[in-house]
Amino acid sequence: MIVVETGEGLSNAQSYVSVEEATVYHTAFGNSAWTERADQQEVSLVKATQAIDAVWGMMYGSRKKTRAQALLFPRLGFYDNNGDYVEADEIPRCLKTAVCEMALQYITQGTDPLENDVDSGIKRKKQKVGDLEEEIEFDGTAQVKSVKEKNSRVNFLLQPILRQPSFGITL
């Protein structure tokens, strides 16, 4: 059973969202893939939490509530980009929603959320086992999508709690 952050700044927390919370969320949106993969729910929530903190954590508003806490939330109280005050013991709803979305993506696509999405552009691949021969023909369309690019929905959901770049402008 995973340890869910309660807002206290737990030193052993693994996720911002419990399996029960995620199930309520995904049921409300008709995401049947979530309930069909009960064996992957906990690991997907932990991986999603880790990925979100790793990729977007440096842009969160404020600072961690305590040095000993395992995750990057809770934070010291701050105003989010919507002008709402985020309490020091609060895990913002937008963060929980983003974790639910990324966890579902992990379950449905089976890829680690921290891996870049690579479309190799392979047109044809030929392999020969005896005397080990391999031939690959590329079509010239290879692309690499960063974690943020392949998770644009998560990026959008987190906007209320991310610091906005100032571009050196002081008002």
Overall spatial form: elongated
Detail the poorly predicted runs: none
SSE series = HHHEEHEEEEHH
Strand order of the largest sheet: 1-2
The total count of helices amounts to: 6
Mean pLDDT: 86
State the separation between the terminal residues, measured CA to CA: 48 Å
* Structural class assignment: alpha+beta
Strand content: 5-15%
In this structure, how is the largest beta sheet organized? 2 strands, antiparallel
Number of strands: 6
**Which bin fits the share of residues in helices?**
25-40%
Query: Measured on Cα atoms, how large is the radius of gyration?
Result: 20 Å
Features:
13% strand, two-stranded antiparallel sheet, 171 residues, alpha+beta, 6 helices
Describe the structure.
With 171 residues, the chain is of the alpha+beta class. Helices cover 35% and strands 13% of the residues. It contains six helices and six strands; from the N terminus they run αααββαββββαα. It has helices at residues 19-28, 32-36, 41-56, 93-109, 147-150, 152-158, and strands spanning 78-79, 85-86, 117-119, 122-128, 133-138, 143-145. The chain has a two-stranded antiparallel ribbon with strand order 1-2. Strands 3-6 form a two-stranded antiparallel sheet. Strand 4 (122-128) and strand 5 form a beta hairpin. The termini are far apart.
Short description:
The chain is an alpha+beta fold and 171 residues long. It contains six helices and six strands, in the order αααββαββββαα.
